[in-house]
Design goal:
With 603 residues, this protein is α+β, with helices and mostly antiparallel strands. 33% of the residues lie in helices and 22% in strands. The chain folds into three domains: 10-203, Histidine kinase-like ATPase, C-terminal domain (Heat Shock Protein 90), CATH 3.30.565; 211-328, Ribosomal Protein S5, domain 2, CATH 3.30.230.10; 389-603, MutL, C-terminal domain, regulatory subdomain (Ribosomal Protein S8, Chain: A, domain 1), CATH 3.30.1370.100. The radius of gyration is 30 Å and the shape is elongated. The N and C termini lie far apart (90 Å). The protein binds adenosine-5'-diphosphate and magnesium ion (MG). Adenosine-5'-diphosphate (ADP) binds at residues 31, 35-36, 38-39, 60, 62-65, 73, 78-81, 95-102, 144. Residues 31, 34-35, 95, 100 line the site of magnesium ion (MG).
Length: 603
């Protein structure tokens, strides 16, 4: 057999290496912005064209480079940030491997202009496919401007793996947010296809968060601080009532470097214990300051994981700090919080006496009696249900048998029962077709709103809208503003009269009639969240009903309250005039029916 092993040429080696550091335009954005931060800049400007596929340009006012450094910076393993291997354990800069610029230069056309404060003239370097094209003196501002054009032009395989511009730009936005949150002392500007999306002036962390994610964050977050010998923790955490169904704004930074860490995420989330609804996630912006020697950053450059020397200690400190922050800001009811120190807050005091569940019944009450018609309000019975398990057992103990004729049958009577003060859900008991019907109010609204919404979206008709006496104004992040703008026609169908006011601001002139005013901001927020987690085709497709479901769920829970007899009638009439009222959009039963025989069989 002939010899088959060959040494790869330099440019193949470079391309392979580059692929590890620069996987998509967002990776180049991250590296270039980090270099600008490392250079001590106070102003950083990012310009993007076609999701970075055509142009990524970062302009900073940092230290700049001498003409020799300007050229050297593109060499492999060329860095000013470490000299010996030991230095790795004390690095405070984001970069230190000297790989980024070399990698980018291997797969794009790069133009660098740079000038230091001491030098009157700057240096221009142009490099393509790892080859220097020119280096000359130029006039430029102090600092560095670096343009990356035609990324992956010589790596077609990588290019075909890139996603749509929308997706690639979202990755760029993620990187931009991570760096902008971490450095509120730096002014950032972002232009996308010549449109200015952000101009973030310097300020506090809270001001930066509001500028990026909307001014409503003022109300949504509470400060977090903890200082120990091992680690200092600072930042903000979201109030539980604003937790989202999808992981939204969750940021951990270690020494201002963005990291992902499931273990610490668990610590944080578990500090909220009972405060969060199922499957909801709080926002957080948490900064850990720790001696560089106590963490291991010597991992792959594109990985965002980091190792702590004493991770379980950091876990405990974080959890306690979050509990304390929630308690101090009255997010936890004050009676549950009576400790000075951060460690362990007991959810139930030892002096609490646990009571047996009580059942109160009115022994004279007979739902089938004629007189009940005239005396509905006094006829109610209450049965406090103490916990989720009991509620679930209670629900399961009644076996529904659904055989409902579709025609509308007048209700003979209807009463409403509230099981538990804090439960927030209630049930309506009605007589229908000689059967006792137990209706879940929330699911009934959900079903009604869902049917109305999906019909309106499919026919492209507008549901009636009621004018707001005082139109509300909301300001959102640039990304969210883009999403709301695309969905404006659908929102109008649903009865939301929303106008784009520019500058990421929207004015809400009207909400769907019959719906409490004031729901619009929360609804828009959840629509945006859903949208981020679905494909546009899914959410915009009326047949798919994602938007209708989202609408129904949100509006129904807001609409759930103790109803007047008239309101109850409207609800029942609307519900039972639907073609199949028994099944809610998510497949749950809206009501169960009990025939006299069934009831008889219990006794
Ligand atoms: P690293 O950041 O790991 O050192 P890079 O390839 O990103 O490696 O950059 C190589 C070197 O080029 C840096 O160490 C730094 O000295 C210099 N450099 C890169 N970008 C800038 C910039 N924007 N301003 C000043 N110097 C820079
Ligand atoms: Mg770097």
């Amino acid at each position: 057999m002939p010899d088959v092993i060959k040494l790869l040429s330099d440019h193949v080696i470079n391309q392979i290496a580059a692929g590890e550091v620069i996987q998509r335009p967002a990776s180049a954005v991250k590296e270039l912005m980090e270099n600008a931060v490392d250079a001590g800049s106070t102003k950083i400007k990012l310009l993007i064209k076609d999701a970075g596929k055509t142009l990524i340009r970062v302009i900073d006012n940092g230290s700049g480079m001498s003409d020799t450094d300007a050229r050297l910076s593109f060499e492999k393993h060329a860095t000013s940030k470490i000299t010996t291997a030991n230095d790795i354990f004390s690095v405070t800069t984001k970069g230190f491997r000297g790989e980024a610029l070399a990698s980018i230069a291997a797969i794009a056309t790069v133009e660098l202009k740079t000038r230091t404060a001491e030098s009157e003239t700057g240096t221009l370097v142009e490099i393509e496919h790892s080859k220097f094209q020119r280096q000359e003196i130029c006039q430029c501002e102090k600092g560095t401007s670096i343009s990356v054009k035609n990324l992956f032009f010589n790596v077609p395989a990588r290019k075909t793996f890139l996603k749509s511009d929308q997706v690639e730009f979202r990755h760029i936005m993620d990187e931009f947010h991570r760096i902008a949150v971490a450095h509120s002392g730096i002014e950032f500007t972002l232009f996308n296809n010549d449109e200015q999306l952000f101009h973030l002036v310097t300020g506090t962390l809270k001001q930066r968060i509001m500028a990026l994610f909307g001014n409503t964050y003022d109300q949504k977050i509470v400060p977090l601080t903890e200082n120990t010998n091992l680690v200092s923790i600072s930042g903000f955490i979201g109030k539980p009532e604003y937790a989202k169904r999808t992981r939204g704004e969750q940021y951990f930074f270690v020494n201002r470097r963005y990291i992902k860490n499931n273990y610490l995420n668990h610590a944080l989330q578990s500090a909220y214990t009972e405060l969060l609804a199922k499957d909801s996630h709080p926002s957080y912006f948490v900064f850990f300051e720790i001696e560089p020697g106590k963490i291991d950053v010597n991992i792959h450059p594109t990985k965002t994981e980091i190792k702590f020397e004493d991770e379980s200690m950091v876990y405990a400190i974080l959890k306690a700090a979050v509990k304390r922050a929630l308690g101090q800001h009255n997010v936890i009811p004050p009676m549950d919080f009576n400790q000075e120190t951060a460690f362990e807050i007991q959810p139930v005091k030892s002096t609490d006496v646990l009571r047996q569940p009580q059942i109160k019944i009115n022994p004279n009450y007979n739902p089938f009696a004629e007189e009940a018609k005239n005396n509905l309000h006094n006829a109610g019975f209450t049965q406090p249900v103490r916990n989720e398990q009991q509620k679930a057992e209670h629900r399961n103990s009644i076996q529904p048998d659904i055989e409902i004729p579709p025609q509308v049958i007048p209700m003979e009577f209807a009463i409403e029962i509230k099981w538990h003060e804090n439960w927030g859900k209630d049930y309506i008991i009605a007589m229908k077709d000689e059967k006792l019907v137990l209706i879940n109010q929330r699911l009934a609204w959900e079903k009604i709103f869902f049917e109305e919404a999906s019909a309106a979206l499919q026919k492209n008709e507008n549901l009636p809208s009621q004018k707001e006496l005082f139109p509300q104004t909301i300001q959102v992040s640039a990304e969210d503003a883009g999403i709301i703008t695309t969905l404006l026609p659908e929102l109008r169908c649903l009865g939301f009269d929303v106008s784009d006011f520019g500058k990421q601001t929207f004015i809400i002139y009207g909400t769907p009639s019959g719906v409490e005013s004031g729901v619009a901001p929360a609804f828009l927020e959840s629509v945006v969240e859903n949208y981020k987690n679905s494909r546009e085709s899914e959410i915009k497709n009326p047949g798919n009903a994602l938007l209708a479901k989202n609408f129904a769920r949100k509006i129904a829970s807001k609409n759930c309250k103790l109803l007047s007899p008239e309101e109850r009638e409207v609800l029942l009439e609307k519900l039972f005039s639907l073609a199949s009222p028994e099944i809610a959009p998510e497949g749950k039963k809206v009501f169960i029916e009990l025939s006299p025989d069934k009831i008889e069989s219990w006794f």
